[in-house]
């Protein structure tokens, strides 16, 4: 019984160690600019975790930052997914839409980009994936901790308590 308990505990420690891997970012200037913007604006952002899932190239009306001039630019509309880390063990995946000007090689804010039917369809296509959800590794860690607290610790207490002589003689 003690061997089984030992193997269960070693298995849970192994799961925790195996689920703490990192992803590498490609040297793409678009992904690097998204990575730097998320590093500046999101406290929980896990650095270099941006993954490009879908994109669309469009010619759109772009308003300047001072909102005085409007130009037509080649804009890449990107759907990316990135990770946020809370308490160093809980990882969440979040999706978001970014706009990148291929003419000026800069990220654009959504307020500066004109909207059309293609953008609305692109956003509707990915709307379900923009919600934040917990990763599988963090979910395994959470359930392992619950199982440890609810089943393993009381079972271990019962096994080890049974081997001591009773004080009632």
Structure explained in plain terms:
This protein has a domain at 24-140. Mean pLDDT is 84; it is low at 21-26. The protein has 4 helices and 5 strands; from the N terminus they run ααββββαβα. The two termini are 27 Å apart. Strands 1, 2, 3, 4 and 5 form a 5-stranded antiparallel β-sheet that branches. The protein is rod-shaped. The longest helix has 27 residues, at 136-162. It has helices spanning 2-18, 29-41, 117-125, 136-162; strands at 51-63, 70-86, 90-101, 106-108, 133-134. The protein has 169 residues and is an alpha+beta fold.
Q: How large a portion of the residues is in β-strands, by DSSP E?
A: 25-35%
Radius of gyration using CA atoms only: 25 Å
Mean pLDDT: 84
The biggest beta sheet is recorded as:
5 strands, antiparallel
Gap between N and C termini, in Å? 27 Å
Q: Give the quaternary arrangement of the chains.
A: single chain
Succession of helices and strands: HHEEEEHEH
Q: Which structural class do you get from the secondary structure elements?
A: alpha+beta
Count of helical regions: 4
- Dominant shape: rod-shaped
Low-confidence sequence ranges:
21-26
Helix fraction by DSSP (H/I, runs of at least 4): 25-40%
Q: Total strand count, please?
A: 5
């Amino acid at each position: 019984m003690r061997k089984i308990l030992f193997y269960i505990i070693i298995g849970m420690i192994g799961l925790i160690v195996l689920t703490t891997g990192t992803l590498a970012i490609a040297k793409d200037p678009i992904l690097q600019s998204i990575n730097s913007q998320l590093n500046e604006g999101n406290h929980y952002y896990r650095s270099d975790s941006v993954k490009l899932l879908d994109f669309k190239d469009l010619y759109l009306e772009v308003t300047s930052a001072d909102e005085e001039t409007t130009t037509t630019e080649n804009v890449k509309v990107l759907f990316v997914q990135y990770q946020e880390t809370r308490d160093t063990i809980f990882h969440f995946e979040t999706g978001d839409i970014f706009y990148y000007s291929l003419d000026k090689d800069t990220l654009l804010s959504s307020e500066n980009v004109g909207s059309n039917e293609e953008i609305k369809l692109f956003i509707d296509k990915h709307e379900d994936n923009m919600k934040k959800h917990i990763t599988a590794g963090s979910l395994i860690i959470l359930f392992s901790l619950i199982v440890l607290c609810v089943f393993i610790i009381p079972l271990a207490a019962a096994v080890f308590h049974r081997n001591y002589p009773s004080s009632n003689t």
